[in-house]
Specification:
The complex is a heterodimer of chains A (335) and B (320). Chain A has one domain: MetI-like fold (Orthogonal Bundle). Chain A contains 10 helices and 2 strands; from the N terminus they run αββααααααααα. Chain A has helices spanning 32-69, 92-123, 126-141, 144-170, 186-210, 214-222, 227-256, 259-264, 285-291, 299-334; strands at 80-81, 88-89. Chain A has a two-stranded antiparallel ribbon with strand order 1-2. In chain A, a hairpin with a 6-residue loop joins strand 1 and strand 2 (88-89). The longest helix of chain A has 38 residues, at 32-69. Chain A is flat, with a radius of gyration of 24 Å. Chain B is an all-alpha fold. Chain B has 2 domains: 2-59, no CATH class; 83-316, MetI-like (MetI-like fold), CATH 1.10.3720. Chain B has helices spanning 2-5, 24-34, 39-78, 81-85, 101-132, 136-150, 153-167, 174-199, 202-210, 215-226, 228-243, 247-252, 271-279, 285-316. Chain B is globular, with a radius of gyration of 28 Å. Classes of the chains: A mainly alpha (335), B mainly alpha (320). The interface between A and B is large, with 115 and 120 residues.
Chain lengths: 335, 320
């Protein structure tokens, strides 16, 4: 398993003869100790299921009253005024910022992460393989609050000239049109998120690339392939499901990343005009909730934030389920 | 026609017998020298090699940059004894001095409580998945563990808030934050323990069964003992993962500048929240210095756990 992703793409290891002798509960003697121990183990597993179910239930139940009182359309409104007599709130702006910044992070981190994984498994000289892998894992060990500080104070001054250049050169294109915001733009947040999820993409891709059957690689080389052609025809097709699920897991992490984004975002003023520009500010789901933690004063206000959290939960649930399905299909395929 | 009869094509039977084997560096060099239609392939190969190296350096740049920033700006305060003994009581953002002992102790205490709750659940779940579970329930548990590992920390915090504060009417506290961290730690412990249990050879289990040892004794005394070091590693990596989490603290455990050892007493000092506190005034040199020092302290704690975990894994790994 990769300690970075918490998920493994490695197939279950069969017993020495390929089977699972005495697997499951068949080895149990049925004695009290056995029943007790097995019962506790089962209970723990059931607790996990119950916890995840409870998360969904509690978020839904506490979001419903707030949503029922909502005078604006929850999905298409850009207003966020959950307090007062007539609460009105919509998530359009958060949805746009969250999804665009995370997508941008994917566009950067997946190619680079796969490149790093290929470097570590195929190109690095033997003495460099382990240190290189450890360095990339180190990137995952840095707490996200430190990424936030670094992005906010150290990195953003270097980004500003780049943004002005992009705005003047490509400003005619709606995605790059100038907005007057120079700090925590969607583009900038996307780049910081890309750095943060890079180790996830790399760790899982590395794991599957390492498992490419040696016969596939040697077969390609024996047919006269160059190293790159070998990678393209043997390693990449074999690793594709792993790369896809790695990207999905990384996307899930990027969607839900909280504290770094909270440090970086520039919140938009109320009533600011809609723009497609990546150089606009705007809160993500997570940063909006985190920034207003002190405001959870009355149930209807809290309910609005819980509703936003529910949407985030559903988003990550879907993304992670896709990752899971892809891994499962790969297992079925290789067995 | 000339292209077809070109004798330098490698797939042509008339190619010289001493043609070097293709593939890897030699094959590429040979292709480069040949100045034939395959030159493009060789160039692509070189380009790919350069791109991979570039990707690697691209990934290393932020790491070095971040570590350098934090170390160069934070190391100064860590050299002072006061940092390790004092707290921030009555110290304003524009005052120098004070220490981080309250936050260090608070963080360690909180993750210890988190681990005490999360580790048994995590290990028993892994035992179920590897030793007991087959069929639908095991599939469902495995799936929910994956979902739990993808739950954003802010959502876990909102859930605990919805239960702890909204439903039960209890106040925010360090313990509530620890509960949110439990949710984030369980999947890490389950997955790492699961991998370790799978590495235990089946012969060991069979030998125990053959001696008439009950299954649960086999699991406790043979399987878990064999995988012990790997499980410890997983636990330490899990603790390291939740130690730097800030979002749950932001929502559930407001910061205090005082010493506070009671997890139920409301405000609770932690390192991430100390960083967050001084972040508001990072334009002031005193606050900025304290902020970077706290960040460095946090990184050191996380890395220590990582290193200890890896050392244990290295020396105690199950031999296949």
């Amino acid at each position: 398993m990769s300690s970075v992703t918490g998920v493994s793409a490695v197939d279950e290891l069969p017993g020495p003869d390929g089977g699972h002798p005495l697997e499951g509960d068949r080895a149990s003697t049925g004695r009290l100790g056995d029943r007790l121990f097995g019962g506790v183990a089962t209970l723990s597993g059931v607790i996990v299921i119950v916890l995840v179910t409870l998360i969904a239930i509690f978020l839904i139940v506490q979001a419903i009253p707030a949503l029922a009182n909502n005078s604006a359309n929850f999905f298409t409104s850009r207003v966020w005024a959950p307090g007062g007599e007539e609460p009105a709130f919509g998530i359009l702006e958060f949805l746009w910022t969250t999804v665009t910044a995370s997508t941008l992070a994917m566009l950067i981190s997946v190619p680079v992460g796969v490149g790093v994984a290929l470097f570590i498994t195929q190109y690095a000289p033997p003495w460099l393989t382990r240190p290189a892998a450890a360095l990339v894992d180190l990137l995952a060990a840095v707490p996200s609050i430190v990424y936030g500080l670094w992005g906010l104070i150290t990195f953003s001054p270097f980004f500003k000239p780049f943004q002005s250049f992009m705005e003047s050169a490509l400003g005619w294109f709606p995605l790059f049109s100038p907005t007057g915001i120079s700090g925590g733009t969607i583009f900038f947040i996307g780049i910081v998120l890309a750095i943060m999820v890079l180790p996830i993409v790399t760790a899982l891709s590395r794991e599957v690339f390492e498992q490419t059957p040696i016969a596939h690689k040697e077969g390609a080389l024996a047919l006269g392939a160059t190293k790159w052609e070998m990678i393209r025809t043997a390693v990449l097709p074999f690793g594709r499901p792993g790369v896809i699920s790695a990207s999905m897991l990384a996307l899930g992490r990027a969607l839900g990343e909280t504290i770094a984004v909270t440090f970086l975002v520039s919140a938009l003023a109320d009533g600011s005009p809609w723009t497609w520009s990546l150089f606009n500010g705007g809160e993500t789901f997570a940063s909006k909730i985190a920034n207003n933690a002190a405001e959870f004063s009355n149930p209807s206000k809290t309910g609005a934030f819980i509703a936003a959290g529910l949407v985030l939960f559903v988003l990550t649930f879907v993304v992670n389920s896709i990752a899971r399905v892809v891994i499962e299909r790969r297992k079925a395929f290789t067995e | 026609m000339s292209a077809i009869t070109d004798e330098r094509r490698p797939d042509d039977a008339s190619a010289p017998d001493d043609f070097p084997p293709s593939g890897g560096g030699e094959g590429r060099d040979a292709l480069l020298q040949m100045n034939n239609p395959h030159r493009a392939r060789a160039i692509k190969d070189v380009v790919a090699r350069v791109v991979m190296w570039t990707c690697f350096f691209l990934a290393i740049v932020p790491l070095v940059w971040i570590l350098w920033t934090v170390i160069s700006k934070g190391i100064h305060l860590l050299g002072e004894m006061q940092w390790w003994t004092g707290n921030q009581r009555n110290i304003n953002s524009d005052d120098a001095g004070g220490g981080a002992r309250h936050a260090i102790e608070g963080t360690l205490q909180m993750v210890a409580v988190t681990a005490v709750i999360a580790v048994p659940i995590g290990i028993f779940t892994a035992v179920y998945l590897v030793e007991y579970g087959r069929g639908k329930l095991a599939k469902a548990i495995s799936f929910t563990v994956d979902i739990l590992s993808g739950v954003p920390s802010i959502v876990a915090a909102l859930f605990i808030y919805a239960v702890w504060v909204t439903t039960f009417g209890l106040s925010r506290s360090g313990f509530a934050a620890a509960l949110a961290l439990v949710l984030l730690m369980i999947p890490v412990v389950v997955r790492s323990t699961e991998e370790m249990l799978k590495l235990v050879p089946n012969e060991l289990r069979e030998a125990a069964y053959a001696l008439g040892v009950p299954k649960w004794v086999t699991v406790v005394k043979v399987v878990l003992r064999t995988a012990f070091s790997g499980i410890i590693t997983g636990v330490l990596l899990g603790v390291a993962r939740v130690m730097g989490e800030t979002a749950p603290l932001l929502i559930l455990a407001p910061y205090t500048k005082n010493f506070q050892r009671d997890l139920f007493a409301g405000n609770f000092p932690t390192l991430p929240m100390m960083i967050n506190q001084d972040r508001g005034d990072f334009a002031l040199a005193t606050a900025a210095e304290r902020m970077w020092a706290a960040a460095l302290t946090l990184i050191i704690l996380v890395l220590l756990l990582n290193i200890i975990g890896r050392v244990i894994a290295y020396f105690g790994s199950v031999k296949k």
